[in-house]
Amino acid sequence: MGKPAAPFISSIATDTPQFYSGESIKGTHVFVVNTNDTSATFNIHFADVPGLNLTSVRVHDMWSSMDLDTFWGDYDVTLAAHDTAALLVTPV
Question: What is d(CA 43, CA 24) in angstroms, rounded to the nearest whole number?
Answer without folding.
Answer: 22
